[in-house]
Amino acid sequence: MGEQVHNRLAMVRAERKVSRQSLAEAVGAHYQTIGYIERGQYNPSLDLALKIATFFGLPVEALFSLEPFRPLADQVYGRNQ
After folding, report:
1. Potential cystine with 33: which of 24, 29, 55, 57 (Cβ 3.0-4.6 Å)?
2. Where are the beta strands (DSSP E) in 1-81?
Protein backbone atom coordinates (compact mmCIF):
# COMPACT_ATOMS: atom_id res chain seq x y z
CA MET A 1 0.00 0.00 0.00
CA GLY A 2 1.24 3.47 -0.79
CA GLU A 3 0.68 6.59 1.26
CA GLN A 4 -2.03 6.35 3.91
CA VAL A 5 -5.27 8.14 3.22
CA HIS A 6 -6.71 9.63 6.41
CA ASN A 7 -10.46 9.79 6.77
CA ARG A 8 -13.38 10.96 8.87
CA LEU A 9 -15.69 8.28 7.56
CA ALA A 10 -16.56 6.63 10.89
CA MET A 11 -17.37 9.98 12.46
CA VAL A 12 -19.58 11.14 9.60
CA ARG A 13 -21.27 7.76 9.32
CA ALA A 14 -22.06 7.72 13.05
CA GLU A 15 -23.24 11.33 13.00
CA ARG A 16 -25.65 10.54 10.17
CA LYS A 17 -26.68 7.22 11.77
CA VAL A 18 -25.72 5.20 8.69
CA SER A 19 -24.63 1.59 9.18
CA ARG A 20 -21.61 0.15 7.41
CA GLN A 21 -23.95 -2.23 5.63
CA SER A 22 -26.22 0.57 4.37
CA LEU A 23 -23.29 2.65 3.17
CA ALA A 24 -21.69 -0.36 1.50
CA GLU A 25 -24.88 -1.23 -0.35
CA ALA A 26 -25.34 2.38 -1.49
CA VAL A 27 -21.82 2.65 -2.94
CA GLY A 28 -21.43 -0.90 -4.26
CA ALA A 29 -18.84 -2.09 -1.75
CA HIS A 30 -18.63 -4.82 0.89
CA TYR A 31 -19.43 -3.72 4.46
CA GLN A 32 -16.03 -5.04 5.60
CA THR A 33 -14.35 -2.74 3.08
CA ILE A 34 -16.01 0.22 4.79
CA GLY A 35 -14.58 -0.97 8.12
CA TYR A 36 -11.10 -1.39 6.63
CA ILE A 37 -11.26 2.16 5.24
CA GLU A 38 -12.43 3.58 8.58
CA ARG A 39 -9.55 1.89 10.43
CA GLY A 40 -6.98 3.05 7.86
CA GLN A 41 -6.23 -0.51 6.77
CA TYR A 42 -7.33 0.11 3.18
CA ASN A 43 -7.18 3.16 0.94
CA PRO A 44 -10.34 3.59 -1.13
CA SER A 45 -10.08 3.89 -4.87
CA LEU A 46 -10.83 7.33 -6.25
CA ASP A 47 -14.11 5.96 -7.60
CA LEU A 48 -15.15 4.62 -4.19
CA ALA A 49 -14.06 7.78 -2.35
CA LEU A 50 -16.14 9.90 -4.72
CA LYS A 51 -19.16 7.60 -4.35
CA ILE A 52 -18.91 7.82 -0.55
CA ALA A 53 -18.61 11.61 -0.66
CA THR A 54 -21.59 11.85 -3.00
CA PHE A 55 -23.63 9.59 -0.72
CA PHE A 56 -23.06 11.97 2.19
CA GLY A 57 -23.40 15.12 0.03
CA LEU A 58 -19.92 16.28 1.01
CA PRO A 59 -16.81 17.24 -0.96
CA VAL A 60 -14.37 14.34 -1.05
CA GLU A 61 -11.77 16.41 0.82
CA ALA A 62 -14.17 16.69 3.78
CA LEU A 63 -13.91 12.91 4.20
CA PHE A 64 -10.47 11.96 2.90
CA SER A 65 -7.02 13.56 3.09
CA LEU A 66 -3.35 12.69 2.62
CA GLU A 67 -2.63 14.73 5.77
CA PRO A 68 -4.04 13.85 9.20
CA PHE A 69 -7.18 15.81 10.02
CA ARG A 70 -7.01 18.33 12.85
CA PRO A 71 -9.47 17.51 15.64
CA LEU A 72 -12.83 19.11 14.98
CA ALA A 73 -12.74 20.86 18.35
CA ASP A 74 -9.56 22.63 17.23
CA GLN A 75 -11.18 23.68 13.97
CA VAL A 76 -14.41 24.85 15.61
CA TYR A 77 -12.81 26.65 18.54
CA GLY A 78 -9.73 27.91 16.69
CA ARG A 79 -7.07 26.07 18.69
CA ASN A 80 -3.64 25.09 17.35
CA GLN A 81 -3.84 27.20 14.22
Report:
1. 29
2. 6-7, 64-65
